[in-house]
What we know:
Helix content is about 15%, strand content about 30%. It has three helices and twelve strands. Strands 3, 4, 5, 6, 7, 8 and 9 form a seven-stranded antiparallel β-sheet that branches. A three-stranded antiparallel β-sheet has the order 10-11-12. The protein has a two-stranded antiparallel ribbon with strand order 1-2. It has two domains: about 20-140, SH3 type barrels (Roll), CATH 2.30.30.110; about 145-195, no CATH class. It is of the alpha+beta class. Strand 11 and strand 12 (about 190-195) form a beta hairpin.
Amino acid sequence: MKSTNSAGGPRSAVFLHPAKIGTSGAIEPYFSQLDVIYCNFGGVGWELDEPHYAIVWNDDHTEEKLTVIPTTSKFTREYADEFNVKRITGLPKTDTILTVSKMMKISRKRVILHPKTQMYLQGKLMRAWKYRIEYAIAIAFGHELPLEYYVRENCGIYLPTDFTTHYLGIRYMPVQHTTSQAFGSGMTHDFIRFY
């Protein structure tokens, strides 16, 4: 049984029986990247023992598992891999914090119907946040450094005083530091590569 969206059209990813094989061979329910779902994280090494929201990062529709980014409403301080994406339509009226470093694969059977809406799909994160998530993945799992850390460590007292406010959009951009030796000169040169 499917429900309808506000425009009256069918709403995707709303099924009654989780983790079943559909007529196309895809495992249902299936989702799109950045969909917000309601999951039971209990017993998978996660601090939350009760259902919670998560952002779908990858669902190839043929595997029983999907990759999700857990969310929380408890914000302490912004980090490269934990940040506030503000309020998401369809979720409680509080800010949503993504915890990218806790990204994990979960069984599709852990996606549950929300008790109030009786739907699997709860909303959608704006596409503009995709790059910030990719930056966080490169830092958390690719062992790259945030630009802010690199600049602080290498500029010392020459760090611009307005760096954290003026360069807010790129402060968590991942960079790699490499050293190269010029052919035949015996001199080394430092380079950073942006993501």
